[in-house]
Amino acid sequence: MKNIITISKLSLCIFFAALMFSCSSKKYEVHVVEIKQMQFQPAVINVQKEDTIIFVNKDIVLHNVTEQSKAKWSSSTMKPGDTFKLVAKESCNYFCTLHLVMKGKIQVQ
Amino acid sequence: MKFMKCFQAVLFFSVCCIISQPVSAQQKPNLTDPEIANVAVVANQIDIDNADIAKEKSQNNDVKNFAQTMINDHQSVIDQATALVKKLNVTPKENATGKQLMADAKKTQAGLRSKSGSAFDKAYIDNEVAYHQAVINTVQNVLIPEAKNSELKQLLENVVPALKTHLEHAQMIQKNLSGK
User: Exposure of A13 by Cβ count < 10 A (0-12 exposed, 13-18 middle, 19+ buried)?
Assistant: First the structure.
């Protein structure tokens, strides 16, 4: 009987701990930017800090995604069908270094 | 300068010959799908050959990077076209348009090889601007309207945004070169 009470208490503690964790952890969104017809679509994306952005190459040629000011981050070369995941930290402009006229913008709210 | 004017005149003439076809094509199409597939492959191969020369001769990083992108992108298009004709069990057929394009390209490439330094960079990039303008016109006004197979037509339509991006990129370098 004593064991049953102890297990119940333990379960209750785990339940409340999980509840508190789920309340305190913010839910980050996942956004998708498609690379198709030689454009980033959408070209401008509004996100919250720590949201995830997934770039998908739906074009027929190679591309990359590179932060524009100082190349703070960059995907490797993306073949058709490849994806690149980025966690948004700050607003920035980005471009494809293979096709310099392809540009996009991330706006962190 | 004389070379570029001469080249542009030849290119313009060639493209005019091709572009003039849709008028008569309203009664009788001039290019069959196997011929269109051949023209598409030839046009892409010409730009790869030009880019190979640029990689070999240019010392300008913007020009060399552009040339590498031309090699990558046009090879991707050739690969897609080759896969499609294989799937459709079609053999690309040589034709007068493809032969004329290749003959003109040989003359252009000889002219490019005779230059060096900034004169080469300017000639190559001027050529890329004129060539992409001509090819975009040909694809949009001749090849797409005349293609009968829907997958071939779709492939040609998918290539147009890449060609337009190449043109914009070349024009950007052209502007930078003229400002130096």
Answer: exposed
- Nearest CA to CA, how far is A99 from chain B (Å)? 7
Give the β-pairing of A66-67 and A39-41: unpaired
Give yes or no for A59 touching B (CB within 8 A): yes
pLDDT digits (tens, 9 = 90+) for A46-95: 999 999 999 999 999 999 999 999 889 999 999 999 999 999 999 999 99
Q: Which residues of A touch B65 (CB under 8 A)?
A: 97-98
Domain that holds residue A76: 30-108
Q: How far apart are the CA of B28 and the nearest CA of chain A, in angstroms?
A: 32
- pTM comes to 0.82
ipTM > 0.85 (yes/no): no
Instruction: Sketch out chain B's domains with CATH numbers.
Output: 32-178 (1.20.1260.10)
Contact A38 B165 (CB under 8 A): yes
* Residue B132 tokens, joined: 């992409």
Residue A40: inside a domain, yes or no?
yes
How many domains does one find in chain A? Answer: 1
Q: CA B156 to CA B176: how far, in whole Å?
A: 30
Of the candidates A39, A60, A101, which has its C-beta nearest B169's C-beta? Answer: A101
